[in-house]
Amino acid sequence: MLIGYSLTSAMGIDQHGIACCGLDEGNCHPTLTSTKEGFMRLLIAAIMLFAAVFPIQAGEPEDSIQAVISDQIGAFQTSDLDRAFAHASPNIQRIFKNPGKFAQMVRGGYPMIWRPARWEMLSLENFDGTRVQIVLFEDQSGDLFEAAYEMLEIDGSWRINGVQLRRMPGVSS
Questions:
Q1: Can you tell me whether residue 167 is helix, strand or coil?
Q2: Residue 160 neighbours by CB under 8 Å, 6+ apart
């Protein structure tokens, strides 16, 4: 077993086959220092084994979802219609048929998303298995809007399946 090999090679084996640290010419003389060192080596090896068996995926799927939304907003800001349309779900693409019609709808119905003064990712919610990313937008007049992006995972990639917009009553920046 690789981890056993790593531990014993890092700690050493005495003439009786007992793993120990602080080897002195093949004799094992554990001391307080060598015991602490051995413990630290064992702890580090255990952490590395745990990390290998249970890799941490920071923020998944939050990071992926936010990256898709951020890229679509960036595409709107630079009028890259093809890129913005590519982030829409197949259902949205069927409804609007092409990037131009999709952009026209966003420009007319969602100007705060088309050209926001600023925007900020808020929380990622889970409603009965549906992921919804909440994003705060400020329009060019300073009014604030909360957008709920419904997300779909299709073949391992996240796509935007719709956005519900709510004006924040009596709130402006």
A1: strand
A2: 68, 69, 72, 87, 88, 89, 92, 149, 150, 151, 152
CA distances to 31, 53, 121, 141, 144 from 137, rounded to whole Å, are 62, 40, 9, 11, 6
How many CA atoms are closer than 13 Å to the CA of 21, on its beta-carbon side? 15
Number of Cβ within 10 Å of residue 26's Cβ equals 9
What DSSP letter does each residue of 49-107 carry, written as one string? Answer: HHHHHS---TTTTHHHHHHHHHHHHHHHHTT-HHHHHHTB-HHHHHHH-SHHHHHHHHH
In the block, tokens 């990313």 appear at 133
- Cα R_g (the chain), whole angstroms: 27
Token code pair at residue 121: 């990712």
The mean pLDDT values, 10 residues at a time, for the chain of 173 residues are 34 48 46 56 53 46 96 97 98 98 97 97 95 97 97 96 92 60
pTM for the full predicted model: 0.65
Distance CA(145)–CA(50), nearest Å, equals 43
Residues with Cβ within 8 Å of residue 133, at least 6 apart in sequence: 62, 65, 66, 69, 121, 122, 123, 124, 125, 148, 149, 151
